[in-house]
What does this fold into?
Amino acid sequence: MYWLLAIMSFSLLAMIATGIYYELYPLDKKDQTVRRLKGTIAFNLLVFIGAQIGLLVLGIQDVMAAQVATEATREISIGMGLAMLGVGIPTGLAAFGAGLAVGPVGAASLATIAEKPEIFGRTLVYLGLAEGIAIYGLVVTILMLGKIG
It folds into this structure.
């Protein structure tokens, strides 16, 4: 299983290094190597995703075959683990949605404040509404934690 981790790490580092290199030394628009580079990055991404899936499939076998280390620790069943993952999903998705909302609203607020500084308070209300999405996700997560705890 360590070879899958090595493939994933190498693939991820290669994608990062390629991105940094071409950020520092961009290609000409007329250059034909852009098409080849897109294929290379796509292949790297495909190898990375394939290794992740392989790690997931092979990792499940190792986890299911693992012996219990100590009896003093509280055992978490697969159902409880999936429930904990499900509890975290609303917060993650709400934070992602809030980030998508705050970006354009914040940019528009800054542009508006530059022209009319007297409407600063109104723009804060809109930013607060966009940020409230994340708070709603957190509240849902807390309520769900109370149900499974």
Remarks:
- The CA atoms of residues 8 and 48 lie 5 Å apart.
- The chain has two domains: 2-65, 78-148.
- DSSP finds four helices and no strands in the chain.
- Helices lie at 2-24, 33-65, 78-115, 120-148.
